Amino acid sequence: MKKNLKRKLLLLLTVSSLAVSFPAFAENHDHHHQHETMLSTPDISNASTDSIFNITDNWTAANGKTFQLNKLGGKPTVVAMIYTSCQYVCPLTIQNIKRIERSLSAAQAGKVNFAVFSFDPKRDTPAKLTEFAKLHSITSPSWVLAQGSEGAVRKLAVTLGIKYKKVQSGDYEHDATISILDSNGVIKFQADAMNKNVDGATDALKALLH
Amino acid sequence: MKSKHSTFISTLVLSSCLFSAVAVSAEDMVRVEDMVLVPKGSFTPFFLKKDDITNSSSVATTAVDAFWLDATPVTNRKFQAFVNKHPDWHKSNIKKIFTDSHYLQHWQNQEGTVNAADLDKPVVNVSWFAAAAYCEAQDKRLPSTDEWEYTLTDNDRDTENLQKQIMAWYSVPNKELPTVRSKPANGFGIFDMAGLIWEWTADFNSYMAPPDSRNSGDKNLFCGSGSLNASNLSDYAAFMRYSYRESLKGNFTGKNLGFRCAKDAK
Questions:
Q1: Are residues A12 and A116 in the same domain?
Q2: How many interface pairs between A and B have CB atoms less than 8 angstroms apart?
Q3: Mean pLDDT for chain A?
Q4: Which residues in chain A touch residue B131, judged by CB atoms under 8 angstroms apart?
Q5: ipTM of the complex model
Q6: Most buried among A62, A118, B41, B184, using CB within 10 Å?
Q7: What is the DSSP string of B91-144?
Q8: Architecture category of domain B34-264 in CATH
Q9: Cβ contact (<8 Å) for A88 and B250?
Q10: What pLDDT digit, counting tens, does each position of B127-145 carry?
Q11: How far B96 CA sits from the closest chain A CA (Å)?
Q12: Which pTM was predicted?
């Protein structure tokens, strides 16, 4: 009887700590501490109702792993949308994200995600994304390049306020925007990805890293 | 005697249950028929039209595959059923990222549900996210802008009349929304493409780019030389629709902005 109760308690503890540790992954430490007082009723869905993590579409990373946007939680994230057959705008976008990365100290850069989503579900397979990463010397584990369904791409673009259209050649007309999310997935800053001056984005990121 | 009486009552109750069950399934059948197969075809989006007749050979058309389309815009009745099933989309629960503050603002009673008088009017005050979620819940999707515009052109069956009808509505918007199906269907069998509400499309956030203008990333289509690109100014109504869509964001709502759903023909 006693043993049984113990086991039940243990199970309860395990379950609740699991349930709590997951949203904690998507939240900063302040939030985590606030939530610790409510162990019994962790509220995952209400974490932040203006977070893009409320979008639950699946994405596939260059390494073939499937994930949802809330995997980017816990750290600020630099987000952009590109497609790999794009000749000019997209390589420049990547260069400017790298400028942002270089403007941070190594310690700071390790606390930031760099997430690049493809407009082009047909051509940008994980293998193609891997090749693209190699071409642009992207090796840091802080980076993720991903592809998703047409619907997932549209929903993310609408959420980020990015306009795009697939044209007959199979290429895409698109806005080039860099967005900075906080660790809860709330958009904090957006800038033209063509602008070589990345001070605004860098400042926004540094403010989030405090 | 007493027991006979109660049997009678329970029979009555039972039969009324049966009756309502029949009514529900009949409604479901109607729901299936509520979609119309729009045959494949093509149309010329206004921004590809050229005024210059000598250039007419260069007029590009946009091909559209066959697809299913809701015969009418989604009504308050149907959207209420969706909200009942998916409480995340109730006006008191909807996540901030998915709407502005006017979501379903015409559902004014305390429970945040629809007024009986509005049941068969098109649902409005819904964001793109809510519209997309509704369609996904029915195993459908929002129509693309091309599909929507192609359906509106009605294979050019009665263009002149259609343009007049559209312009009349654009210049004097409805004071109060009529119910769906108040006017005859178009040649495809689709109702209310013009004269009722503006409608969300899946890719409302598209560029109106001609297929050969790659790398332009032209944000000034409607300014200066850009507007000359959209050259058939006689199609002013289409110009208004495209620029209206351009002005939208996914979380916007409007008291004349609703939607209908589509589905691949397969």
A1: no
A2: 63
A3: 82
A4: none
A5: 0.78
A6: A118
A7: TTT--GGG--TTTTTT--STT----GGGTTSBP-S--HHHHHHHHHHTT-BPPP
A8: Alpha-Beta Complex (3.90)
A9: no
A10: 999 999 999 999 999 999 9
A11: 5
A12: 0.79
